[in-house]
Amino acid sequence: MDMKWKGLLAYNGADEENEEPTDFGFNWQLKGNMVNKSIQRRSRVERLSEAGITRELKDLPSWKRTDEKWIERKYRFKDYLAGIRFVDQIAAYAEEKKHHPLISIDYKVVTLRMSSWQAKGLTALDFEMAKTFEETFENAET
């Protein structure tokens, strides 16, 4: 791949190895000698309706809605370091997705809170990530 285009793919929010776009990226258009850049909004960052939130929460019975625009879940671990290892996995995934939960560590209990600031509420991405957090917890040493 030509290096100048590889750089543009990185700005397009794409992973340079597999070129799949991330949730927020830039849309580049070549017009003459000028490159125009615009931020793309994807449907996963649009605020869900009340019916959509209710439907998503049915798939996540351990998660609770708080303050209208948050979902929250507490995870209990056998010891402090097991919780820290879980948080390390969550942080790596959140960084990959460019969407970060609020994380609270209280000895053997880790609390995660999700919301989307851009949408001013809950989005499909929040619930997608919560499902991944559940899978991560199932595979963790609890």
UniProtKB/TrEMBL annotation:
Keywords tagged on the record: Lyase
SUPFAM superfamilies for this protein: PCD-like (SSF55248)
Pfam families per UniProt: Pterin_4a (PF01329)
InterPro entries, per database record: PCD_sf, Pterin_deHydtase
EC number, UniProt record: 4.2.1.96
Enzymatic reactions: (4aS,6R)-4a-hydroxy-L-erythro-5,6,7,8-tetrahydrobiopterin = (6R)-L-erythro-6,7-dihydrobiopterin + H2O
Root EC class: lyase
Gene Ontology molecular functions: 4-alpha-hydroxytetrahydrobiopterin dehydratase activity
Domain of life: Bacteria
NCBIfam families noted in UniProt: PRK00823.1-2 (NF002017)
Family recorded in the similarity comment: Belongs to the pterin-4-alpha-carbinolamine dehydratase family.
Protein name: 4a-hydroxytetrahydrobiopterin dehydratase
